[in-house]
Structure formats: structure tokens, C-alpha cells
Write a structure and sequence with these properties.
214 residues; mainly alpha; 87% helix; elongated
Length: 214
């Protein structure tokens, strides 16, 4: 029975890595589309999100199967419970990244603009955060999980600075109001992606320590 549970845990880890990898791709494609809007890149972001959603269902079924059939306890139970929570965050990340990419089709003036620079910075930071949090999960690295949480301060700072600058633009340049609003909406998507990754890091912390520090 222990061997069977170990195999299920290994399969869960593997599927989580794949799911997060597709979410990373979605963020990467979204950020690329802000630099140079290309329909193919947007399509790839949407396709990556489709894979995220498919794996969300697969992993959820596996988790429930493990809980019902294997009845894990202690650390194994924490891991399976954490995975069930984290897949919800990964799913939201994929959705938000795909939304960003699709917005570049509707508002191509944003792509390559000066306002897109901080947005792309947010994209780069969140992509690194997501890569780090899944590495922390797989390797049981508590310090890395804490570093991910700290990294979100960078995303929040860029978001606040961009929001402040755009509010001034909206007040002073009426021709740019629509674009400024769209830039703020995209920045908010990235800010939420950062928050979802922080949630994941907290669940990694819980898996390792047994304490939910939020």
C-alpha cells in the first residue's frame, strides 16, 4: 500500500510540474505579445491555458482518488490537500495570462509602447516566481517558497507606480484615456497572477511545516 501511495504522489508531482509549465508558457506568450503583437503568439497563450484547464481536471480526479482509496495521513495528506488548492491558483493564472494575450489583439497600440515596458517587467517577474514556486514544491524548499512570497513586492511596486503614472495621464491627456485604462487592466491581471503564486507558496509552506502562514 505504501508503494502504491508513493507512486500516486510521484504522479501528482509530475502532473503539477506539467500544469505549471503550461501556465509559465501562457505568461511568457502573453508577455511576448505585449512586446510585438503577433496573432500566433496569442493563440499559443490560449492553447497553453487550454492544457492548464485539462490538467486541472486530471489532477483533481487523481487527488480525490488518492484521498478515497489510499487515505493518506500526515505529510502525504498535507501534500494532496495542498495540490487541490494550488491547481485552482494555477488555473486562474492560465486564465489571466490568456486574457492579457487576447487584450493585445483588441488593443494593438499597447504592444511595444512605452507603457508596455513595466507590464513586460511584471510578466518576467511573475514567470520567474511561478518557476521558483514549483521548484520549491518539488524539492520541499521552504526558503525558496519564502523568496517567492518576497518577490511579489516587486510586482506590487511596479503595479502601484504604473497606476500612479496612468492616473496622471488620464487626467491630462484625454486622447490616451482608453489605452491607459487597458494598460491598468493588464497590470491588474499581472498583479493577480502574483497573488495566486503567493498563495501557492503558502501551500508549499504548509506542505513542509504543517502550518498555514498567511
Amino acid at each position: 500500500m505504501r508503494e502504491r501511495l508513493d507512486n500516486e504522489i510521484m504522479a501528482l508531482n509530475s502532473e503539477m510540474v506539467r500544469m505549471v509549465s503550461f501556465a509559465e508558457d501562457a505568461i511568457n506568450m502573453a508577455t511576448q505579445s505585449l512586446a510585438d503583437q503577433v496573432p500566433d503568439v496569442v493563440e499559443r497563450a490560449v492553447e497553453a491555458n487550454d492544457e492548464v484547464e485539462r490538467l486541472d481536471q486530471t489532477i483533481e480526479r487523481r487527488c480525490l482518488n488518492v484521498l478515497l482509496k489510499e487515505q493518506p495521513v500526515a505529510g502525504d495528506l498535507r501534500l494532496v490537500s495542498s495540490v487541490l488548492k494550488m491547481i485552482t491558483d494555477v488555473n486562474r493564472i492560465g486564465d489571466q495570462a490568456a486574457n492579457i494575450a487576447e487584450m493585445t489583439l483588441r488593443h494593438p497600440d499597447i504592444c511595444g509602447s512605452e507603457d508596455s515596458i513595466p507590464l513586460r517587467q511584471m510578466g518576467d517577474v511573475t514567470e520567474r516566481m511561478l518557476a521558483d514556486v514549483i521548484n520549491a514544491f518539488v524539492s520541499n524548499d521552504l526558503e525558496m517558497a519564502k523568496e517567492v512570497i518576497a518577490s511579489d513586492d516587486v510586482v506590487d511596486r511596479i503595479y502601484r507606480d504604473l497606476q500612479t503614472d496612468l492616473v496622471v495621464k488620464i487626467k491630462n491627456e484625454t486622447d490616451d484615456i482608453e489605452m491607459a485604462i487597458q494598460v491598468i487592466l493588464i497590470a491588474k491581471y499581472y498583479e493577480r497572477i502574483g497573488d495566486h503564486i503567493v498563495n501557492m507558496a503558502h501551500w508549499v509552506d504548509y506542505t513542509i511545516t504543517g502550518e498555514l502562514n498567511r
